[in-house]
Amino acid sequence: MHARTFLPALAVVSVLALAACSGAAEADTPASPSSGGPAAESVTVEDAWVKSAECGMSAAFGQIENTGDADVTVVSVASPASTMLELHETVENESGEMVMREKDGGFTIPAGGVLALEPGANHIMLMGLTAPAVAGDEVTFTLTFSDDSTLELTAPAKDYSGANETYAGGEGHEGMDMGGDDADAGGH
User: Which domain of life does the UniProt lineage start with (predicted)?
Assistant: First the structure.
């Protein structure tokens, strides 16, 4: 082989080898949230807690932070502490009362933003507690995002009396005892 033919062929083989190595290295590196990785990788939950309750219903609160560069959406939540969970928002109805209802489409946390889950506002509703949520107990949850990725978290139960909302549209929540001082008001 002549030097003029050999050098260009060597250059092509070198470029292909480097490209192959580069591709292999990228495949071994987990995707980061900023490069389109699973939504759960860009989310953290801080200050999570659950309202203590003897039976019936309770609610979970905290700060959900999205450190990624794309919006993420929590579409559902599961917990062994409850037979039915919903993502809830609190809104004002036609008569000016604050009412709770399931949040259509889930909770969207903007890129680089925080979603506050608070009494009297957005929250996770636990209906049909499987056991009392006693102050100091740890409650585990699995958040599921729109891309089917999941995030496990644990939140302590705390005593809390407040946020006396009612339910919108008779969604089958009435009559469930929340426990605590505000059980008759239907709030949490």
Answer: Bacteria
| Structure letter (DSSP) for residue 55 | S
Reported as a single tens digit per residue, the pLDDT across 66-81 is 999 999 999 999 999 9
DSSP secondary structure letter of residue 147: T
Residue 185 lies in a domain: no
Per-chain mean pLDDT for the chain: 78
- Please give the tally of structural domains in the chain: 2
With a pLDDT cut of 90, the percent of the chain lying above it is 61
Quote the CA–CA distance of 83 and 74 in Å, as a whole number.
Answer: 19
Contacts 24+ apart (CB under 8 A), 8-16: none
Query: Is the residue at 134 inside a domain?
Result: yes
Question: Looking at the structure, do residues 17 and 73 belong to the same domain, yes or no?
Answer: no
